[in-house]
Write a structure and sequence with these properties.
Elements: E1 4-7, E2 10-13, E3 18-24, E4 32-38, E5 45-51, E6 57-59, E7 67-72, E8 77-82, E9 91-98, E10 109-110, E11 114-119
Length: 120
């Protein structure tokens, strides 16, 4: 069982930056840890992920070059630095962890979600 606690959302203006964090109770080395987001009326979508055993990272095309995922292994914590935020980034952001984050439907472990709102 993995428990995730995510935090750091808020209300910002377009072009601003925001950082999210997610602390895991435990995280096996063969797990991925990352972020999804869900805007009102839309399906949950992948944002970014990293494999806990090495430096592999993956990003959605919509956030490449603007968002950076990083971690503090000693704290079992992953971060999402979001720069140059756009109104279309507005969503509830969910931390996720599992053997694979290829599809949100198969992910077993989720944070409670944190709201990010970007005003124009």
């Amino acid at each position: 069982q993995v428990q995730l606690i995510d935090s750091g959302g808020g209300l910002v203006q377009a072009g601003d930056s925001l950082s999210l964090s997610c602390a895991a109770s435990r995280l096996p080395l063969n797990y991925f840890m990352g972020w999804f987001r869900q805007a009102p009326g839309k399906e949950r979508e992948f944002v970014a992920a990293m494999r806990w055993s090495d430096t592999y990272t993956n990003y959605a095309d919509s956030v490449k070059g603007r968002f950076t995922i990083s971690r503090d292994s000693a704290k079992n914590t992953v971060y999402l630095q979001m720069n140059s935020l756009k109104p279309e980034d507005t969503a509830v952001y969910y931390c996720a962890a599992d053997y694979s984050l290829a599809s949100w439907r198969n992910v077993r472990y989720w944070g409670q979600g944190t709201q990010v709102t970007v005003s124009s």
